[in-house]
Design brief:
10% of the residues lie in helices and 35% in strands. It is mainly beta. Among the domains are: 195 residues, Collagenase (Catalytic Domain), CATH 3.40.390; 127 residues, Immunoglobulins (Immunoglobulin-like, Sandwich), CATH 2.60.40; 164 residues, no CATH class. The strands form 15 sheets. Strands 1, 2, 5, 11, 12, 13 and 14 form a 7-stranded mixed sheet that branches. Strands 30, 31, 32, 33, 34 and 35 form a 6-stranded mixed sheet that branches. α1 crosses α4.
Amino acid sequence: MKFSRIAAALLATISTGALAGGPLYIHEPTMKPYKWDTSKGPIPVYTDGGPVIMDAHGNPVKSFSVLEKGTTFNLDITLPDGSVLPKYTTLDRDYTFLTVDQADAVTANAIHQWSAVETSTFEMTIQGTIEEKAGIADVNGSNAEQIIYAENGYGFWVNYDTDGQILEQYFGVPRDQVLGIAFPEWADEATGEIVEATATMSGWYVSVEDTDGAMVNGVFTHEFGHAINMSHSQANGQIAYFARGYQPMYDGVPGCEGTTKYTSSANLPLSSVETMFPFINVLGEGGREQASVNVRDDIVNISDLYPTADYLSSTGTISGTLYTKNGIEYSGINMVARNLDNPLYDVITQQSGNQTQGLIGPDGKFTIHGLTPGGRYALYMERIVAGGYPTTPTAILSEAEYWNEDESSNPATDDACAITPIVAQAGVTQQVDMYFNGYQDGIKYTPLVQAYVQDHAKNGQRALGTTQGGSIFLYDSTKKVPFVTIANAAGYAMLQAANPAMDKTATKAAGVADFNGDGVATPAVWDIRSNKITPLPDPSNGTCTIDSDAGKSSASVWDISDDGKVIAGTVRKPRNSDELICAEGAGGASDGLPVIWRNGQLEYLDLTGLRNVPWVRADRIAGNGTTVTGMMNGNGQVAWVNGKFRDIDAEFGATDGSVISSDGRYVAFGALDLTVRGRPSKGVQVWDTHTDQLRDLGGLRWCDDIQAYNAIGINYCDRGYDHDSLVANGVGLPRVTLMDANDDLTMMTARAGSILSGGFTGAIYVEGLGWMTTGEFFGKQGVVEASQSVMDNPFGLSADGSKLFGGWAGAAITFDVNMDKAYVCDNGVNKELSFPKQVVAAVKKGAEFGRCEHLNDRY
């Protein structure tokens, strides 16, 4: 018999942070879960002894939890025996709080919870101590290796980590965050039978109000579930632990009739929280309630692993596959069956693909056993909110939805809120495949998960970005496949992840690279076709540096002309003009200056007439290289037209970002009204650099498009104000930061709002259609893939306006949006036309923008 160690990762219950139903580990030769052989009788449990500490009366006691010497509490502490330690008393020695006997009682209750499930054959009982079996009276940080990962013999070994030293010294995790660690440890690799498991239970993180261990009991039950080979699951726990006013949670599909919206756990009985949810609050009632295996989700998951002979024949089953709209299996989504007549306690969840855990490729299969015969179940999909799962949780690619008898991928016929109750029948498996909704025509919305595009070719074909791990990639939108660049022969990466920029045809890119391995990136241009990288002139030779999230660099590269010959950015020079380089450690004593590199030669941009400005950067360049814009003091805009400096902040109130037409003639920016005190925003203006004339494009509307918060968080939209009344009171229009534009500025993208104003909002301007939020734009087009993840950062627009890249501010995800075709509703008839030109022309003739059935939709 060959034993192998199967615990490849730590499954820890976290106290205040994070760590689906189904197995924790899969036996790959058979692709079945590792399991204990319950035909051998109850699995023996062996418990730890703990250190000997004096109780309040000076009696030596084997201790599980200790009040440590030198600790001072700001409240009276009642010990389990009724003794009281007055508040503000500094403890003169260690005091026993919970004894090993009490810990053993908690252990006994936890194993009873799993052993008493009527539809499961699993059973375990305490049959001795670790001292009796292995000769160790107290497993601690100094000897843990003799028990953990050592072959001790058949059974489940429970260690009591009194002071948290096993967690810290052996596992390397903080004792003030981790409550317990447990896993099946050794197995017969020929059969997949678990023969040994280990748990380490923290005695340090116990509430001083938990005088009988009842509040920490939930941790024991949870961790012992892992030792049985149960994974985490999500049924109601996300409501109890994550529901907030700004982050509501739901017991069904959001927005549908019959679904409850929770903004806190106030209306949720904690007894309905599943034991195997990844979070347990041991400082409150959550730990006490999660100690009981009473929610159907937990009962079914252990019964799936260790079923009684009549388990499947006495309960109902749902089996199906989750597909993308294109028919590709999709794993990692929480599939939920909730009894409409007992929704909180009779709820069962399984992740799609959790029986293969990504080991065999795309797998959207899910099977939900244990349905109550006669029960009416609503089946729906939801994302995993948080926690560690063997099957990687994934994003919902479209709108969340219920299953119904007309299930399809067509949003026009498959109403996300339509429910066909599945009536469970004993011994009967009902097949219910599900598809993400999404139209096969019109606008295409493709997510690039764990990838952040930073710049794109204006022909819309390729993009340059970084993965969440920091690797640079090129993305080919015609193939929908990113590929990671390789280091050149000299061993350094082509470009670092610091604002790389691509020319129009994706033949050249500019950025910074560390050429000599000294940790300092300097400006460079990369010929993508030949894979050759060339340094650009750097006035300080990499000695004047600044630190950023992207690393240490002596220059910043921001934009590149269409032909790749002119590059805009910022370099650093020593503040003392007589010096050529910065002394070691004196990079901060340097100035950032706006520059362009023209055909590889450095040119400083003119700042004549500008005084007392700490820094100015150049960050935008026209396609033909004639006009450059930039920023000063954080948001004020400046420009250089054919080399001549213009302070457009002082002249026009230009602020928050600008975009330039390809020919360099027109510059658009958000503008402030310089004639009014407080400088309210007056929307987006287009400046004709030839005539100095301004054209007003307006902007978003308060309350309709974006909420109106003041500095202390009051939302005026909730106080009876609307857009017109706010503007009349001098608030101005919502400020927007322009992100990108097509060649002639007939289309623009922007971002509005902030964290203080309830979050960011993406916006799109189309000449002839006006301003729309990205939620309105995609909603009207019926792009349901955007409903759960509408972009708020639409940063990249192609030259003809048919391609868009965007994401969420601060998140490593990008959406590749193909907009060459879009819909109008013409006299009640949907018409797919070329976008933007044919769509705009049709709207001018009286058609409405969007699909007829989605004209009022907003995401």
